Amino acid sequence: MNKPDFMTMPRVQLRQYILDHREDDEAFQTYLSALKLVHISR
Fold it and tell me: Can you point out the beta strands (E) in 1-42?
Protein backbone atom coordinates (compact mmCIF):
# COMPACT_ATOMS: atom_id res chain seq x y z
CA MET A 1 0.00 0.00 0.00
CA ASN A 2 1.34 3.43 -0.93
CA LYS A 3 1.47 6.15 1.70
CA PRO A 4 -0.35 9.38 0.97
CA ASP A 5 1.62 12.51 0.12
CA PHE A 6 1.69 14.20 3.51
CA MET A 7 3.14 17.45 2.16
CA THR A 8 0.11 18.12 -0.04
CA MET A 9 -2.52 16.72 2.31
CA PRO A 10 -4.71 19.31 4.08
CA ARG A 11 -3.73 19.69 7.73
CA VAL A 12 -7.14 18.50 9.00
CA GLN A 13 -6.90 15.36 6.87
CA LEU A 14 -3.31 14.76 7.99
CA ARG A 15 -4.39 15.07 11.61
CA GLN A 16 -7.08 12.44 11.08
CA TYR A 17 -4.58 10.18 9.30
CA ILE A 18 -2.26 10.45 12.31
CA LEU A 19 -5.07 9.58 14.69
CA ASP A 20 -5.92 6.53 12.57
CA HIS A 21 -2.25 5.49 12.07
CA ARG A 22 -0.55 6.38 15.35
CA GLU A 23 2.49 4.26 14.49
CA ASP A 24 3.34 6.38 11.40
CA ASP A 25 6.21 8.58 12.62
CA GLU A 26 6.75 10.15 9.19
CA ALA A 27 3.19 11.48 9.13
CA PHE A 28 3.51 12.78 12.69
CA GLN A 29 6.78 14.60 11.93
CA THR A 30 5.22 16.17 8.82
CA TYR A 31 2.27 17.36 10.92
CA LEU A 32 4.59 18.90 13.51
CA SER A 33 6.54 20.67 10.77
CA ALA A 34 3.31 22.06 9.33
CA LEU A 35 2.27 23.35 12.75
CA LYS A 36 5.65 25.04 13.22
CA LEU A 37 5.34 26.76 9.83
CA VAL A 38 1.89 28.08 10.71
CA HIS A 39 3.14 29.34 14.06
CA ILE A 40 6.22 31.01 12.54
CA SER A 41 4.23 32.71 9.78
CA ARG A 42 1.91 34.45 12.28
Answer: none
